[in-house]
Design a protein that fits this description.
It is a single chain. This protein has about 300 residues and is α/β, with parallel strands linked by helices. The protein has a single domain, classed as Divalent-metal-dependent TIM barrel enzymes (TIM Barrel, Alpha-Beta Barrel). The chain is about 40% helix and about 10% strand. It has eleven helices and eight strands. Strands 1-2-3-4-5-6-7-8 form an eight-stranded parallel β-barrel, surrounded by five helices. Strand 5 (about 185), helix 7 (about 195-200) and strand 6 form a beta-alpha-beta unit. The longest helix has 21 residues, at about 110-130.
Length: about 300
């Protein structure tokens, strides 16, 4: 039995008072409409919240808490971290996401014991999300392409087998996700073709599973023959609920400030305006100081606030 199961294997409704939590109707998607100048939020650590809180509140920017992505965060002390986060965000008007754990935790875990660990780690992330009122959890796509990027499936039979594995791992968590009002958004990482990820997300037939587009990742895989970030956005639009924004030179996963790399931001934001509803736009910088630089760069060009 893993740590999370031993300590917290109980219905969310029996966990006691969680003052920051609310339960939106997940059957009704977020209805924010694209505007001429959408507002961007940011991915931040809990420790950095005091520095950025006034900036977040001023324009009701959305927030992503990145700490749960660290391998040890959900092992010890996460309840204390959740209490501190609630205290820091008291009265915060924006929407909260968290980045879920991902290192060594593939949804395509063939070994049943490993699959149980993956599910348990994601369950712990749900408990943390519930305690801070987060309504999205970013998790990583399990696809690691090996072949021609123009082929959606190099091994169709294997894909169907892996789809069932992912459904078993994540499917058991969806009742809890729905209860606490939280959506898993699966982020492209190594994916060179959107179709397998679209099929994976669609296979759950659930409003609790949607897609996250990481623009920097899409630009990086474009160098290997994949579609451009704006083509990704167009293809996944009906399922898109979350976007990570950061720049790159196409040589590595840089997480640079917007404008430092080679991504065609004008084309991306033009495509964004075509969407029926606006996904959460989150700056995911390696250096926190790059957040303000990115906001200013986008604002000067009229792309976002």
């Amino acid at each position: 039995m893993t740590t999370c199961q031993a300590d917290y294997a109980m219905p969310v409704s029996e966990m006691g008072e969680m003052p920051f939590i609310y339960f939106p109707d997940l059957l009704a998607p977020e209805t924010t409409q694209p505007t001429e100048c959408p507002v961007v939020g940011a991915s931040l650590s809990i420790n950095s919240l005091p520095r950025y809180l006034d900036w977040l509140v001023a324009k009701q920017r959305n927030l992503e808490i990145r700490d749960p992505a660290e391998p040890t965060f959900l092992v010890n002390g996460w309840r204390e971290a959740a209490a501190r986060t609630r205290s820091l965000l008291a009265g915060y008007p924006g929407k909260i996401s968290i980045h879920g754990p991902f290192q060594s935790l593939s949804l395509f875990a063939h070994d049943p014991l490993i699959a149980a660990v993956v599910a348990d780690r994601l369950r712990c992330a749900l408990y943390f999300a519930a305690e801070i009122g987060a309504t999205q959890i970013v998790i990583h796509s399990p696809f690691i392409p090996f072949g021609n990027p123009n082929l959606a499936y190099t091994e169709p039979k294997k894909f169907q087998q892996e789809l069932k594995i992912a459904q078993n791992v994540l499917g058991g968590l969806l009742p809890m996700a729905q209860e606490i009002g939280c959506v898993f958004v699966i982020e492209n990482v190594y994916d060179t073709n959107p179709q397998p990820l679209i099929d994976l997300v669609s296979s759950f037939h659930s409003p609790c599973v949607r897609m996250s587009l990481d623009v920097g990742h899409a630009f990086l895989t474009q160098q290997s023959g994949g579609p451009s970030p704006e083509q990704w956005m167009r293809k996944v639009a009906p399922l898109l609920a979350h976007v990570h924004l950061h720049d790159s030179d196409g040589q590595a996963d840089r997480h640079w400030a917007i404008g430092r790399g080679k991504i065609r931001w004008q084309s991306l934001f033009a495509e964004l305006k075509q969407l029926e509803s606006l996904p959460r736009l989150i700056l995911e910088m390696k250096q926190p100081d790059d957040i303000h630089h990115s906001v200013q760069w986008l604002a000067r060009r009229g792309y976002s606030n």
